[in-house]
Design goal:
The protein is 42% helix and 16% strand.
């Protein structure tokens, strides 16, 4: 399932530790360990903010920090459209650039939107979880920068599963949620912002309070939380960042890339047997942590997901308009090719049964 993903027992167990006071050196040490422990996954040397909210809260924070203005949203799926909706809700004027079915928005479309005037920021989802498509963040950010726009990135399904290089790619606001590739329970968001983003936010006097990015940054610099943090989740995060470090980030990325390759080879094999199963996202633009598949004509994806559930595996249903035609395999978090294969075998059996 593409989130919430399974969490290791020792990580879950950390949540039962006694609570601590959060205005203390003990909390600051916990905060610093988790925050610095996440820098590699974001490709940054900047402070990673630990936010008590789900990922959509961080999405809103990114947009709430900026004074209302023109925003260009790259829309290639449900989460990318949510980003655009949040921008509208925060009072921005949003222009949506659409992608061909299942793919990513062509850079020429983005450029056409940027040349027309004063665009404050571009919103982009790195890996669109409803389709599995991966956008080229470095190219999007370079183009946005060329036209003086900030790049705001939903990296919810990519941080921890594949390289996200906030500093090297010059990204201005990048966030993820705890319940995806970092394999933590839901309830935390993590984010990092550039100096350029912070300077733009300073010019906006109406940033609210809970979602004020400057407040988040100010407290993060002191390894503190602006409001009472979700301590049990941070206890879990402390254990998990140590586990991620022990595996090694490169090894974690490789493990996810291997799962992407394994499911792609499996779909090829299914097709070779005459079953018209297809991967939604085009080759070369597929995220490492999630794959959406279009089921053959005449099969209801929900029926397939139900059968697979009966055999003990939880798949993601199709999302949004793709609900009846697709299912999604979340090969992220603690999964590996070894745990993915038995699941794919079960899907194959269910396909065979439903095809009669
Ligand atoms: C899961 C997901 C979200 C939403 O996260 P919440 O934690 O439910 O707010 C946003 N964007 C993407 C790409 C996601 O996969």
């Amino acid at each position: 399932m593409p989130g919430p993903v399974g969490v290791r027992p020792e990580v879950l167990a950390a949540m039962t530790r006694p609570m601590i006071a959060h205005r203390t050196p003990a909390y600051e040490a916990l905060h610093a360990t988790v925050s610095t422990g996440l820098q590699g996954a974001f490709g940054t040397s900047r402070p990673v903010w630990l936010l008590t909210m789900s990922a959509t809260g961080a999405m809103e924070m990114a947009l709430r920090g900026l004074a209302p203005g023109r925003i260009v949203s790259l829309v290639n799926g449900e989460f990318a459209d949510r980003f655009a909706q949040v921008a509208e809700g925060c009072g921005h004027t949003v222009q949506r650039c659409f992608a061909p079915f299942g793919g990513v928005v062509p850079l020429a479309e983005l450029e056409a939107a940027l040349v027309t005037g004063d665009v404050r920021a571009v919103t982009v989802v790195h890996v669109e979880t409803s389709t599995g498509a991966a956008s080229d963040l470095a190219a999007v950010a370079a183009l946005a920068r060329h036209y003086g726009a900030l790049t705001l990135v939903d990296a919810v399904t990519s941080v921890g599963a594949q390289p996200v290089l906030a500093d090297a790619w010059d990204l201005d606001f990048v966030f993820t949620g705890s319940q995806k590739a970092l394999a933590l329970p839901p309830g935390l968001a993590f984010a990092v912002a550039s100096e350029r983003y912070l300077a733009t936010a300073r010019a906006n006097p109406r940033r609210g309070l809970y979602l004020d990015p400057l407040r988040a940054h100010r407290y993060a610099l002191a390894s503190q939380a602006p409001t009472t943090p979700a301590l049990p989740l941070l206890f879990a995060a402390e254990v998990q960042v140590a586990r991620v470090a022990a595996e090694g980030l490169e090894a974690r990325w490789t493990r996810h890339a291997e799962m992407r390759a394994a499911i792609s080879a499996w779909v090829d094999a299914v097709r070779a047997d005459g079953i018209d199963l297809r991967i939604v996202a085009p080759e070369g633009a597929r995220g490492a942590g999630v794959t959406a598949c279009v089921v053959p004509d005449g099969i209801a994806a929900e029926a397939l997901v139900r059968r697979v559930a009966g055999a003990g595996w939880t798949l993601g249903d199709g999302y949004g308009p793709l609900r009846t035609a697709t299912f999604r395999v979340g090969h992220l978090g603690e999964h590996s090719v070894a745990t993915l294969h038995p699941c794919l075998d079960v899907i194959r059996t269910a396909l065979d049964d439903l095809m009669g």
